[in-house]
Amino acid sequence: MNRGETMNDLASIKSKFNETTGEKFIELKNIKKNFGDLKVLKDINIDVARGEVVCIIGASGSGKSTLLRCINHLERITAGKIMIKGEVTDYREDDTDMIKLTHKNISSLCSEVGMVFQRFNLFPHMTVIENIIEAPMLVKKEKKQAITEYALELLELVGLMDKIDEYPAKL
């Protein structure tokens, strides 16, 4: 990623905060998730447009985190279809794969979907900026200089530039 691409990405992110395109980014069709006899997700249907911000609210144990984990392939669904950017990432019926996708294909699509864990743990030995750039460098093989510039822009966007060199214990 070069500086021009970084700035284009930032402009894209800023515009996504302000408007949705109506284009479906995530589609969940008849999602079911069971843990043994316990039915956690029961026929969930959701469409999320590109740029749309969605909050999932519910009681403890109601399946919010399980749903997010299924979208990100940290859990497999029991039945239903998950599509990201119009491409099927999971399609199962009665715990049986109806379509076989490669790990690489799923990883590529899921790399565009993010989630924050309930107990998000930053690396305590790393500063804010180091925590931000670690995943893109490790997972997407981004160059340190380019992703650092991008991270700085994001910190400025959300008003956290003054925290750049802080460690998680000081936040």
Based on the model shown, name its key terms.
171 residues, alpha+beta, five-stranded antiparallel β-sheet, 5 helices, 34% helix, globular
Give an overview in words.
With 171 residues, this protein is an alpha+beta fold. It has five helices and five strands; from the N terminus they run H-E-E-H-E-E-E-H-H-H. The chain has helices at 3-18, 64-71, 103-110, 128-139, 144-157; strands spanning 24-35, 38-49, 79-84, 87-93, 96-97. Helix 1 (3-18) runs parallel beside helix 5 and helix 4 (128-139) packs across helix 5. The radius of gyration is 18 Å and the shape is globular. The mean pLDDT is 83.
Topology:
Elements: H1 3-18, E1 24-35, E2 38-49, H2 64-71, E3 79-84, E4 87-93, E5 96-97, H3 103-110, H4 128-139, H5 144-157
Antiparallel strand pairs: 1-2, 1-3, 3-4, 4-5
Q: Which consecutive residue ranges, at least 5 long each, have pLDDT under 50?
A: none
| Residue share in helix | 25-40%
Supply the number of helical segments: 5
Residue fraction in strands: 15-25%
Q: Describe the global form.
A: globular
Q: Supply the helix-strand structural class.
A: alpha+beta
The span between the termini is 29 Å
What is the string of SSEs from the N terminus onward?
HEEHEEEHHH
Would you kindly provide a brief summary of this structure?
By secondary structure, this protein is α+β, with helices and mostly antiparallel strands. Helix content is 34%, strand content 23%.
